Amino acid sequence: MPLTSRQVYDELRQRILQGSLQAGRTLVETAVAQQLDVSRTPVREALRRLEQDGLVERVGRGLRVVQRSPEQILEIYEVRVILEAAAARTAADRRTDFDIRRLRAIHRQMQELTDDAVDARVRLNNAFHEALWQASHNATLVDCIVRLLVQLRPYPQTTLEAPGRWDLILKEHDELISAIESRDCDQAAAIATAHMTQARDIRLRMFAEGFGAESVVPEEPLI
Q1: How confident is the model at residue 13 (pLDDT cuts 50, 70, 90)?
Q2: Alpha carbon distance 159, 8 (integer Å)
Q3: Which of 8-12, 55-59, 140-144, 218-222 is the most confident on average?
């Protein structure tokens, strides 16, 4: 049975977010349809949805996976800093004992990781932030953060590999948990702001070193 437009959308979205469809990659409707063994109609609908998501963009008469400029990445992080601070502030006000236990459990797992456990560091760091968002008990805020982070997923490098970054993350996460546990809303927001501002600066430096125009994937029409 041929794939539906939703299934085509899900497949392409997953490939973009996992990095197998890299930033700058050209997407040609006929080539995508041929590879997925579907007609052009569901592909056209799927690409339209991906464009609405901000994951692909129009270039002339074609489409490509979004290749963001340093200015655009800065804009994304500026909003993320605000949202993460809001989540931390709200978590300090609304957190439950279960929220604190979950944050501390993830933090202990992070402390036990070895230097070469890069994938586990990324996974647990993401889990920590997701637990923090959930501790805000504000579903709309969580949804805004998740939607925003999709815009950074096509860039697979992690800021956690920057020299000294992991030790600083552990220190700041510990301070953040303490502020949330003591219901110090201002302190929690301040720590989250500093934490994400540093991540922004590292991301921009990584972009300049490895994701500039010179590293754009060649524009062959494939997926």
Answers
A1: confident
A2: 31
A3: 140-144
Q: In the beta sheet, which residues pair with residue 26?
A: 64
Whether residue 134 lies inside any domain: the answer is: yes
DSSP string of 24-70, one letter each residue: T-EE-HHHHHHHHT--HHHHHHHHHHHHHHTSEEEETTEEEE----H
Domain identity same for 26 and 93: no
Same-domain status, 80 and 115: yes
Going by the DSSP 8-state scheme, the letter that residue 137 receives in this structure is T
| Poorest-pLDDT segment among 46-55, 85-94, 124-133, 182-191 | 46-55
User: Are residues 149 and 160 both part of a single domain?
Assistant: yes
- What is d(CA 8, CA 139) in angstroms, rounded to the nearest whole number? 28
Mean pLDDT for the stretch of residues 145-156: 76
Q: Is the pLDDT of residue 76 over 80?
A: yes
Whole-Å CA distances, 44 to 5, 47, 105, 199: 8, 5, 45, 36
List the domain range (segments joined by +) for residue 110. Answer: 70-210
- Residues 110 and 126 placed together within one structural domain of the fold: yes
Predicted pLDDT at 219: 35
Domain count, the chain: 2
Interatomic CA distance for residues 103 and 155, integer angstroms: 27
CATH number of the domain at 59, please. 1.10.10.10
